[in-house]
Amino acid sequence: MVAGTAGHDGLVNEHIKTLAELESSTSSAHKRIDDHERRIQSVEACVSANARDTAVNTQSITNLCQKLDSLVTTLRWGIGILAVSALGLFVWLIQQQFLKP
After folding, report:
1. Taking the CA atoms of the chain, what radius of gyration do you get in angstroms?
2. CA atoms of 83 and 26, how far apart (whole Å)
3. What is the pLDDT of residues 59-100, one digit of tens each?
4. Per-residue pLDDT tens digits for 17-70
5. What does the pLDDT read at residue 98?
6. How high is the pLDDT of residue 2?
7. Is 100 helix (H, G, I), strand (E, B) or coil?
8. What secondary structure does DSSP assign to 2-58, as a single string?
């Protein structure tokens, strides 16, 4: 029976080594998973910050476009008024030349 016990002890030792290897491998996998989780969280934080910045930039661009539309309208009115004034001046000058005795 002593020989059977020695074989049994060898199997137990082999299983203990296998369990130790599995434990080491599992620990390594957990460390890698934790590292990946931290990296994913940092990427999500960056994406969240970029989304916020994008929203702010979009709003700023929208406001800028509205201001440009207002400026274009003002310039069109100003050019129209100048054109009408120049036409009025031209008509007045012609009348002054023809009405001179």
Report:
1. 43
2. 83
3. 999 999 999 999 999 999 999 999 999 999 999 999 988 777
4. 788 888 888 888 889 999 989 988 888 888 888 888 888 899 999 999 999 999
5. 79
6. 46
7. coil
8. HHHHHHHHHHHHHHHHHHHHHHHHHHHHHHHHHHHHHHHHHHHHHHHHHHHHHHHHH
User: Rounded CA gap, 11 and 7, in Å?
Assistant: 6
How many residues are there in the chain?
101
Q: What's the token pair of residue 53?
A: 């910045």
Token digits of residue 99:
């009405």
The CA-atom distances, in angstroms, between 22 and each of 8, 10, 28, 75 are: 21, 18, 10, 77
Q: Both tokens of residue 72?
A: 């274009």
Six token digits for residue 33: 């998973």
CA–CA separation, 16 and 22 (whole Å): 10
